[in-house]
Amino acid sequence: MSIKTLLLAITATITITTATAQDKLYKKNGDMIEVNVTEVTTRTISYKKADNTAGPTYTIAKGDVAKIVYENGSEDVFGVVEGHRTPSVKKNVKYGNNIISVMPMQITSNVGVGMAYERVLDKAGILSFYLPVTVAFNPQATDPVTGIRTGANNNPEWFIMPGLKFYPTGGKGVVRYGIGPNLAYITGKRWINDFVYDNMGNIVAVDSGWRTRSTLGIMITNSLNINPNAHLHLGLELGMGFSYFNKIGSRNENVAFLGQFGFKIGYRF
Asked: Which of 8, 161, 197, 217 could form an SS bridge with 243, CB 3.0 to 4.6 Å?
């Protein structure tokens, strides 16, 4: 499957999901109905039933409505629900369009750490630009000739993965799922053992050492964002893909599997 076909399939899925998203209208008597709100005036609220968007338009007095939770996560609050001692309706949470996160645990080719920046690109919060940068620490390597163990911390690998996130129900809410493509550029050092064999299959020479790695590929990343309040941001990510270009030292390697998994904690503003 070509990348163009894959991206078109992702976009079509997101479009279909978004088209079926629903608003939730909470009445003051405690009832909740799923609707598509069409108009809010000073006195009334007009809507269509979510399971019959081609049907008639209904109107309800604004004084009978406690709140509306829109499909993108934003809310309009008008009153409280009947029978509750304290208001059951939270104030409208104003989620910011920027998120800065640290990744205390990030698994790529090895375990590492990282940082990420996310910027919402549209009013509904459906599309975001996303830029994570991580560093993976290579394990210790042993030279097969000398037996000397080399220091790996001086030879990390850097992962720079700019991309997009699509949130089918909008990214501004307490819990939101996102999916999107990321370019993956990897640079750094990788320990290589190059063995030279004779006609009998015996090793006659070894050329070992840290080699420069340059890799370019693409991944599809799944995200789960948790926003307990307007500023605290938590997240989990799982991305998988493959490389187009993978060069280690002077050798052009075969297509490689790319993957990443991590946990984030950050600030939204």
From this structure: 217
Tell me the pLDDT tens digit for each residue of 144-183: 555 566 655 568 899 999 999 999 989 888 999 999 999 9
Rounded distance between C-alpha atoms, residue 131 and residue 159, angstroms: 10
Residues 167 and 232 occupy one common structural domain: yes
Q: In this structure, are residues 72 and 65 in contact, taking their beta carbons and an 8 Å threshold?
A: no
For every residue of 121-178, DSSP letters joined together read -STTS-EEEEEEEEEEPPPPEE-TTT-PEEPSTTS-EEEE--EEEE-TT-S-SSEEEE
Rounded to 10 degrees, the C-alpha dihedral 140/143/148/152 comes to -20
Sign of the alpha-carbon torsion through 182, 186, 190, 192: positive
pLDDT at res. 71: 84
CATH number, residue 70 = 2.30.30.100
CA separation for the pair 36, 44 (Å, rounded) = 15
